Amino acid sequence: MNKKKTVQKTEISESAAHLPEHGPIDETGREVLLSLKNVDITFGKGDNANRAVKNATFDIYKGETFSLVGESGSGKTTIGRAVIRVNPCAAGEILYKGVRISGKIPHSLDREVIRNIQMVFQDPAASLNERATVDYIISEGLYNFHLFENEADRVAKVEKMIEEVGLLPEHLTRYPHEFSGGQRQRIGLARAMVMEPELVVADEPISALDVSIRAQVLNLLKKFQRERNITYLFIAHDLSIVRFISDRIGVIYKGDIVEIASAEELFDYPLHPYTRSLISAIPIPDPILEKNKVLFTYDPSVHDYSKEEPKMHYIGHDHYVFGSTEEIEEYKRIREAGVPLKSITIRDPNEPETRTEDDNVSNEPILDTPIHDTGNKLYGIGSFFLPLLGLIGWLLFKKHRYYKNYKMCKKGTLAGLITFGAIILLFALALLIATL
After folding, report:
1. Could you read off the pLDDT of 176-207 as tens digits, one per residue?
2. Cβ(264)–Cβ(341) below 8 Å
3. pTM for this model (two decimals)
4. What's the structural domain count of the chain?
């Protein structure tokens, strides 16, 4: 990143066998807990190699919630799994408290990393051992690291944790299949928190849950953060969720981190067009407004990177954007103007729709067609034999945005007119020949 801030490095060796008590402090006084520096993650080898994450660089500060947002397959979970040392880095390095934890590290450091960095998985069913009781699932980390003085101390810690996540001590003797999805996610959260970690990688922990349960799990996460000063790497694809729980947000597109900023900064000034497209896709609770919302669609072809490779640049206001030098200058000009950008546009339902191929807006008719717009073939058959009625249906269906029905009538009407026109022409020609 071309940020003109420097991190004041403490005397920490990157080959240390143990983690220090504190990480490096930057010039703003914030402790840098986790750093990714030019991280590449590749799957496969040779011609089959797939570069899933490209040159990822960002910092996570102690006590904050840093959210990583992007569509499915963009590389969010891949980065999260690299942080917990599941996915190896093909290039670059990951530092925790200034100590390199990627690649080959001492066994003692590996155990400290496992203890200090925990993960809450997306699927609460697949991440729990169905053959183990809840008591053992939560206690497994305590056993492995011997984080209890005696059996009574272990039981007390597990019972306290199960109550903190909203379950009861009698649930400890049950098995995961006896619980709902929300309860299973609470068990997974208890399993992570009982280790007293400093960093928790939350990999879409609420995407598999009902909407009513999501708020409860998010409140639990914030509760633990307040009480234990826990830092979160929160992975999600829904910007409407992360806006209200995040301190900073990173946006990732096909392995590239394209924008990083604080939550309010990102929503007020979404400079990269992909960020704007994600914001425009946030559902609006009002069905009328949602129906008339104009989507902003991201087209990668708007970038011209043939002459210069894009990089992540610092543009001030603790805001980073990915782009070429020319694009960055434009982003800086927009940001310094201080006028918040509007990503969501509501179309006036009384105004006719205007569709231009040059606009980055999606007016795809299929998104707002009526439920009975089925494109039934009977419309096409009827329009073929009765093209005059088909023409009327064609115009009416188009006016009321029954696009599938309209296309079927149009197809039948045109086929009918051409067929009957050809028959009339042949009949006239035959009549003309007969009179000669």
Report:
1. 999 998 899 999 999 999 999 999 999 998 88
2. no
3. 0.75
4. 2
